[in-house]
TrEMBL record, chain A:
Its main location: membrane. It comes from Paenibacillus endophyticus. GO terms for cellular component: plasma membrane. This is Raffinose/stachyose/melibiose transport system permease protein. It holds the Pfam family BPD_transp_1.
TrEMBL record, chain B:
Pfam families: SBP_bac_8. Gene3D superfamilies: Periplasmic binding protein-like II. Residues 40-51 have a biased composition (Basic and acidic residues). Transmembrane segments: none annotated. This is Raffinose/stachyose/melibiose transport system substrate-binding protein. Residues 24-51 are annotated as: Disordered. Residues 1-19 form the signal peptide. The keyword Lipid metabolism does not apply.
TrEMBL record, chain C:
This is Raffinose/stachyose/melibiose transport system permease protein. It holds the Pfam family BPD_transp_1. It is found in: Cell membrane. The keyword Transmembrane applies. Its main location: membrane. It comes from Paenibacillus endophyticus. Signal peptide: none annotated. Keywords: Cell membrane, Membrane, Transmembrane, Transmembrane helix, Transport. GO terms for cellular component: plasma membrane. The keyword Nucleotide-binding does not apply. Coiled coil: none annotated. PANTHER family: BLL4140 PROTEIN. One of its GO terms (biological process) is transmembrane transport.
Length: 294, 454, 294
């Protein structure tokens, strides 16, 4: 390849590229994309559609049904009896603390593992990395005994602590990968200016690693927002129950009212989807940044 | 041991806090959030201890998950009225469906943290480990005399002459049917086991689901099989004898015939589509929405006739029969047992309050009356004084089955042993009904399950 | 600088919080599990030590355990051989979608952000033999004979579970590959086009090999996710019919809590962790060899 001609042809090339993909090809591409996109969200559409139906309308033929009358009552029931608002706040509270503390601890750890010089850093890092493959369910039984001894049952800490601990390996992986790519010269000059290590981490490293921290937060958010087996085991009173429990509670209580069950599922699903759509740009950028550098 | 844990967490918390503050110049947002969990914890524990003197909080753990229908609604109503009458008592209800309930109660028991009042079943598999490990409070039988429990009802809750719990109801397995579906297809409700098979075939041929049941949870199947077996052996006790080690399932012609009956029913697709993955709610809906002609379930579902979620046409047409007869077993031989009830935790901080609540709960005009009048079950207490004559046709049919009973099965087979035994028994039944094993293999699996008991 | 970076006290404060939490919440429970795994504890009351009986039983006499492991491997194979190639293909498609690029990326990811409790309940309804979408669809197309009791059929059920898991994870895999594609310098495409290489060739010869670091990340994530699978199964079939859809996470939960074999359940989780460790080490070895080739 001659670099020269490449440069001169670049403009032409770009124009050609747009045209080159013939309209027919483009159309096929879009049809395929829409097809799969529909497959991905169809169940969601179906869920919302049925949440407006009476339980009796569920049976019979037809895949999507235009409701004879919109059963808003389903939503009223869901909101009142599913305790959705409270569970939503609980979920937000627990997840937020988890992802912030996890990011914070992981940043310190990854700094120590990539920058500081100490004998055991290799083995120590490998050790934590092994945690990535430990299934959270394997710790369910002993953790219950542990929390009981600590009187932490029915306390948000019983979720936050394991959530953070299990977030560490993957967060560490991404953050330390990112840190490796940051030139040390910036830190060195800061140290010359009399900055402590903690100062370096929080004044200099943290702003630079923001994209990677965002990735870590997002990945952890997804996993813990949806976690429910621990939540169901360690929390006993409704005060701290998280959102996934709402649906479990509701299917028990409204077992014969399908419409209301679907309404509560829609209520649980929609906020995450909306939040996600709002942050989709940051989310993709974060994952991109972390993945490419990591 | 305990001290070590506490020290460890203390160290941990100190570390976290210290790490936060030393980093605070650059990480303000982290500091506030990291500190809050411990604040939260303090807030929640402090008030309870302060108020300890006067008000009483009772934790009430129940498996009646549906708080807006049937028995759960009544349970909640009684709790609410008790709290209204006794302002100092607060009853915190935790309600889960059967299976999650049983899993969770084990979690509580393994850490000696059983809630004050729990739902208990007067069956070995459930209550024995709790009694053996000294987790249930002994109740004073005389305190509950005015509740008029039916003779024998408390037996399952007693061990070595001591009473540890009180039964809520008398349970028996029946077949509910949708009269309209039978009439529309000019079929008669089966009266013999042969007819049951034949009717199932014909319903299936007409594109109607014959029998719905909740086989995903699995407990209805072994009781069903007890019926099928009794219709061949003519005696419910024969199965109990096998469980005690007197004889085997394998090689017994009657048990084999019973298993073959079930297999024949399964082969002719007598069970509703998807019955193996149908949980309680799903199977109930299938029947209630007129999608299945019959429904094998306990007598506590008299509310089917009044549940507004179902079409009126269904509500007016639902009926119940006992399991069809054979030449050896009559319809008055019923698989019946005393079902769920309550027990009080030995660790309860307020045992008197818990017992006082149970006394209130079982006062005849509360549970027994209300559960009967709403058709949510058959109480384990005398309730003839509450018969109003306004009962639904379904309720009348159920009470007829109950009062005509000449022999009963007692504790369901799977509840007659350990939980491991129970799991094995239920899985064997799921496989038989699901056509994954032959009747002979089924009997062998049952014997293997019995072997676990030794 | 060097002195600062090897200050033991600083290192201690950086590492200790995260490391201690990790030890406490991840390692300690496993040690406890190993201990309880040598007992016949039923979860209540006293127990006896049974030595290594539980462990030998799992390894040599427990068909369900191996079935669960096999299911995990089946899921893994499906994920790697079906989900990932499609995800990669669609990641490439998405980059060519023009204005709608962001939207497609967002839509494909939606299932991953919805709570598993909701998606599972939803799919159970989709598979429902009477009112489920699948059977209605078949009926609508005049294929009534193909109607199935999807989750109740021991042969089909596991595939239904696999479809659901792949559906939910599709967006995640796609996003990873998409991120990888973003990291490839744009010049490369142009240069290749100048070379006269066809689009297909461009991707197979140039782009995909460049994506290999990303593939590695995606594979590691897939392996851990498949082995740890529990929630979907727990909520959809609870392992049934007859343990044909059992996964280890669910099996150990069921063993401990439904069968009250608490000691045995703990032993399962220890064996599980060990198997995960072995697999990861093997994977690492394999990938290290790979690295040399590029």
């Amino acid at each position: 390849m001659e670099a020269l001609s490449a440069k001169t042809h670049r403009e032409v090339n770009k124009a050609r590229k747009k045209d080159a993909a013939s309209p027919a090809l483009k159309a096929i591409l879009h049809i395929v994309l829409w097809g799969v996109a529909l497959l991905q969200i169809f169940p969601l559409i179906w869920l919302i559609n049925y949440s407006f139906l009476k339980s009796g309308d569920f049976f019979g033929s037809g895949i999507l049904k235009w409701p004879k009358s919109f059963e808003w009552n389903n939503y009223v029931n869901a909101f009142t009896y599913g305790s959705v608002p409270r569970f939503l706040l609980n979920s937000l509270f627990i997840t937020t603390i988890t992802i912030l503390v996890a990011a914070f601890l992981a940043l310190m750890l990854s700094y120590a593992f990539t920058r500081m010089q100490w004998k055991l850093r290799g083995p120590a890092m490998a050790f934590i990395m092994l945690g990535m493959i430990v299934p959270i369910h394997a710790t369910l039984l002993p953790n219950f005994i542990l929390f009981d001894k600590l009187s932490l049952i029915d306390n948000p800490l019983s979720l936050i602590l394991p959530y953070i601990a299990f977030s560490l390996p993957i967060s560490l992986l991404i953050l330390s990968g990112f840190l490796e790519t940051i030139p040390r010269s910036i830190e060195e000059s800061a140290v010359m200016d009399g900055c402590s290590v903690f100062g370096v981490i929080f004044r200099i490293i943290m702003p630079i690693t923001k994209p990677a921290i965002a990735t870590v937060c997002i990945m952890n958010f997804i996993s813990w927002w949806n976690e429910f087996i621990m939540a169901n085991t360690f929390l006993t009173s409704e005060t701290f129950k998280t959102l996934p429990f709402s649906i479990m509670k509701f299917t028990g209580q409204y077992s014969s009212n399908y419409g209301a069950q679907f309404a509560v599922m829609a209520i649980i699903a929609l906020p995450t989807v909306i939040i996600y759509l709002m942050f989709t740009e940051q989310m993709s950028r974060g994952i991109t940044a972390g993945a490419v550098k990591g | 041991m305990k001290k070590i844990w506490i020290t460890l967490t203390a160290i941990l918390l100190v570390f976290t806090a210290a790490a936060c503050s030393s980093g605070s110049n650059g990480a303000n947002e982290n500091k506030g959030n990291a500190a809050s969990p411990s604040n939260e914890a303090k807030e929640t524990t402090a008030p309870v201890e302060e108020k300890e003197a006067e008000p009483v909080t009772l934790k009430f753990f129940t498996a009646l998950a549906d708080r807006s229908n049937g028995a759960g609604k009544i349970e909640q109503a009684i709790i609410d009225s008790y709290m209204a009458e006794n302002k100092n008592v607060k009853i915190e209800v935790e309600a889960l469906q059967d299976e999650p309930y049983k899993a969770k109660i084990k979690v509580y028991a393994s850490t000696d943290a059983v809630p004050d009042i729990i739902q208990a079943w007067g069956q070995t598999s459930f209550i024995k480990p709790l009694i053996d490990n000294n987790m249930l409070l002994e109740l004073n039988e005389s305190e509950f005399e005015s509740s008029n429990f039916v003779p024998g009802a408390k037996d399952g809750f007693s061990q070595d002459g001591k009473l540890y719990g009180l039964p809520r109801g008398t349970d028996f397995l029946v077949i509910y049917y949708n009269k309209k579906l039978f009439d529309d297809n000019s079929l008669a409700v089966p009266t013999t086991t042969a007819e049951l098979l034949e009717v199932s075939k014909q319903l299936r041929a007409k594109g109607i689901n014959p029998i719905a049941t909740n086989a995903m949870e699995g407990w209805s199947l072994p009781i069903w099989f007890e019926y099928a077996a009794q219709r061949h052996t003519g005696d419910f006790n024969k199965m109990d004898a096998v469980l005690k080690g007197e004889g085997k399932f394998t090689g017994d012609a009657d048990f084999l015939a019973a298993a073959q009956d079930i297999a024949a029913l399964a082969d002719s697709k007598g069970l509703a589509d998807g019955f193996l993955t149908a949980d309680y709610g799903t199977s109930r809906n299938l029947f209630g929405q007129g999608q299945a002609a019959m429904y094998v379930m306990g007598n506590w579902e008299a509310g089917l006739a009044t549940d507004e979620n179902f079409p009126e046409e269904f509500r007016n047409n639902v009926g119940a029969i006992s399991y069809p007869a054979s030449d050896k077993g009559k319809t008055t031989d019923v698989a019946a047992w005393y079902g769920g009830g309550y027990a009080v935790s030995k660790n309860s901080k307020h045992p008197e309050a818990a017992v006082a609540f149970l006394k209130y709960f079982f006062a005849p005009e509360n549970w027994a009356k209300q559960v009967w009048e709403t058709g949510s079950g058959t109480p384990a207490q005398k309730f003839d004084q509450f018969l109003t004559g306004n009962e639904t046709a379904l309720q009348k049919q159920l009470v007829d089955i109950f009062s005509a009973m000449t022999s009963s099965s007692g504790t369901p087979v799977h509840d007659n042993g350990t939980d491991e035994f129970k799991t094995k028994v239920m899985e064997a039944h799921q496989k038989l009904f699901g056509k994954q094993i032959t009747p002979e293999q089924f009997l062998a699996e049952m014997d293997a399950a019995v072997a676990v008991l030794k | 600088m060097h002195k600062l970076m090897s200050n033991r006290i600083t290192i201690f404060w950086l590492v200790a919080p995260g490391f201690m939490l990790f030890l406490f919440m991840v390692c300690l429970p496993i040690v406890m599990s190993a201990y309880y795994g040598t007992t016949n504890w039923t979860g209540i009351g006293a127990y006896d030590f049974v030595g290594l009986d539980n462990y030998t039983n799992i390894l040599f006499h427990d068909g369900v355990f191996w079935r669960s492991l096999l299911n995990a491997l089946l899921l893994l194979a499906a994920t790697l051989l079906i989900q990932h190639p499609i995800a990669l293909l669609f990641a490439i498609f998405v980059t060519h979608a023009g204005k709608l690029e962001k939207w497609f990326r967002a839509i494909f990811f939606i299932p991953a952000v919805i709570s598993i409790v909701v998606t599972s309940k939803m799919w159970v309804s989709v598979f429902h033999p009477n009112f489920g979408m699948f059977n209605k669809l078949l009926e609508g197309m005049g294929l009534s004979a193909w109607k199935q009791d999807w989750l109740g059929d021991p042969k089909l059920a596991i595939w239904c579970i696999i479809v659901v898991v792949m559906w939910q994870g599709f967006g995640y895999a796609l996003l990873l590959y998409y991120a990888g594609l973003q990291g490839i310098p744009k010049d490369l495409y142009e240069a290749a086009e100048l070379d006269g290489a066809g689009r297909v060739k461009l991707y197979t010869r140039v782009v995909i090999p460049l994506l290999s670091p990303m593939v590695r990340v995606a594979v590691v994530i897939a392996v851990t996710a498949c082995l740890k699978q529990m929630e979907t199964v727990f909520l959809m079939t609870n392992g049934g019919p007859a343990n044909t859809t059992q996964f280890i996470g669910n099996y150990l939960y069921k063993t401990a809590f439904s069968s009250s074999l608490y000691g045995y359940g703990n032993a399962i989780s220890v064996v599980f962790v060990i198997i995960c460790l072995i697999l990861t080490l093997a994977m690492n070895k394999a990938f290290k060899k790979d690295v040399g080739e590029f």
